[in-house]
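Human: Respectfully, please carefully check these tokens:
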Amino acid sequence: MKRIISPLIIIALIICSAIFSACNRLDDNFSTNPNHRLSFSTDTLSFDTVFTSIGSATKQFMIYNKNKEPLNIETIMLAGAETTGFRINVDGRKGDYFNNIPILEEDSLFVLVEVTVDPNGKNQPMLVEDSVVFVTNGIKQVVNLEAFGQDVHLMKGGVHINKDTVFKADKPYLVYDSIVINNGATLQLEKGVSMYMHDKANIISYGTLKSCGTMENPVIIRGDRLDFILNDVLPYDRTPGQWGGIFLKNSSFNNSLSHTIIRNGTTGVTAEASNPDNLKLTVSNSQITNMSENAFSAINCKMVVYNSEITNAGGSVVALVSGDYNFAHCTLANFITLVQRTTVCLALANNYSKDGNTVNADLNANFDNCIIDGSYGAGTDKLNGEIAMSENDAAQFNYLFNHCVVTTNGENNEHFKSVIFANDESRPVYKLKGGEKNKYQYDFRIAEETSVGVGKADPAVSASYPIDRLGVKRLKSVAGPTIGAYEYVPEEEK
């Protein structure tokens, strides 16, 4: 009777034979030729800015044996060992010193690297350096490691502001969880303050938030990821949804954002239903951009916004429901591509839902010398395109667009005065409109003298705002001031 050998046994024997063969080959046939050297995927592994006491993202480089014979790497050593904060993992093994690491001919190994930087109490970033040393056949080779460490005010566990408080610009603020400004307290952000917000972190105000940036030293509120999703193409800083947003609660009044840049969050600025008789928020010379949901929304509030850019959102760039709003020399535009758009650039309504009931409340919204634009185009129906309106006869619905560029299908009347209705053939021309070619960068300054809106602003309104968001004088142009947040500036002749 013939014995039948199990296929599993045959496979096991083949694998064992291959393993033993490889081991014997490595044990007996290492090249000792000093000209047979290692190759690496990089000579210097660089980390973006790393916050002190917070570990970096993991990066890697490859070790290659491009020779026709196997090599024995006699030593792999982290030169600074535990002194610099770097850590390495060689082909799945952690440590800072490795002996006799075999690498087959025309094969490769992974080296994973992390770094944690110790605080130094200084505002300026510091350079941290180390190296990984390889010795093969007596020949020393090196891959350099470098990282910039930034000391921060670390805010963890939820921070409550119970009294008037000033955040100074001595070091950036790294915010985990959220900052809550309690009723009766004011948080002031001095010029030059940088706030790095961790995933889902928020600023929640029951009291008052005052962001006091200047043109030279703006306040910056952004996500805390400083590395890239796609190397050299898409940094996290250009990706929406990296943190939560700023929320102004019912009791919060007299908030202000001056020369403030808020970017790459989820909801930008959100204001709860309030009392429109009291000023909720003033926004001046600021930029709110790149949000995965609404960039700027308010219910039954009183707000003043001027010389500001509010752009790029998965939801509306600006959504105003009931209340009293005045916008002057603003650029509202939505050309976002990294998330799918869900609605128009500008939404207006005089009714909202509260506790399951519909609340009707007056809306008064004025837009002077503003751009309202986006990738949706003008549409074919009146007031289609980048504007949506929800009107209930139970409350007043008052709105006025004066000397604006509006991407919608319409005509001038009592609500649209000296308005330029833009379409796909005639719309503002911006310097950068994102996309992979531009590494997802946007620049909503006007790029051409022939762009719609150049020289078409209401000079009487511009006289109240003689300098644009970037400090350019509006009233110098012979043609007249430009509609939007940015005055057109001719490029210098080359």
Summary: The CA atoms of residues 103 and 245 lie 50 Å apart. Confidence is low (pLDDT under 50) at residues 1-26.
